[in-house]
Specification:
The protein is mainly α. Helices cover 73% and strands 0% of the residues. It contains five helices and no strands. Helix 1 runs antiparallel to helix 2 and helix 2 (38-69) runs antiparallel to helix 3 (79-109). It is elongated and about 55 Å long. The two termini are 36 Å apart.
Length: 165
């Protein structure tokens, strides 16, 4: 896949849409369990689980794309490494959220949640929403980092930038 005009992998756009779909699905699951509608509750948990897995797969592809695109001479001073680390840290936190969602889903199929007790579902939903907000911040950093006109992602080495001043 080619880079978009900002220099970020197109897979980041796909993963952002997946994150939004999962967030909406978890919110609906939370609403269904509050109203004791177990079948749609479980269906939305499973949808969120599938979407979350696709998110991690898409992020893995995007990170690989970023790392392979970085010129070797810019590893220490380029923005690609910084953005890749930020995205990787977000992905690692998302894997934890996904494991928590697996736990909640297994408990949902064991009839552990109802209209009186759904604390785990609520916490899982909020964790997903918080990771969505963090992802928006990562995308903002990517947009700012890609504003260097000549070299895209890679910033000038420190010695060159000092000499140019």
């Amino acid at each position: 896949m080619a880079a978009n005009r900002h220099g970020s992998p197109p897979a980041f756009l796909v993963s952002s849409v997946l994150l939004l779909i999962g967030s909406a699905s978890l919110s609906q699951a939370c609403g269904f369990v509050r109203h004791e509608r177990q079948r749609p509750f479980r269906r939305h948990l499973l949808l969120s689980l599938v979407v979350g897995t696709l998110f991690v797969a898409t992020q893995t592809y995007a990170l690989t794309w970023l790392i392979r695109r970085q010129p070797p001479e810019d590893v220490q001073v380029g923005t690609v490494a910084f953005v890749a680390v930020m995205a990787a840290l977000h992905a690692m936190h998302f894997v934890i959220a996904l494991l928590f969602l697996v736990f909640v889903t297994v408990r949902a199929f064991a009839d552990r949640y109802d209209h009186e007790y759904y604390w785990g579902v609520t916490i899982c939903t909020w964790f997903w929403h918080i990771l969505g907000i963090v992802w928006l911040l990562v995308l903002a950093v990517i947009a700012i980092a890609s504003l260097t006109p000549e070299r895209g992602w890679a910033l000038l080495p420190v010695s060159e930038s000092i000499r140019q001043q």
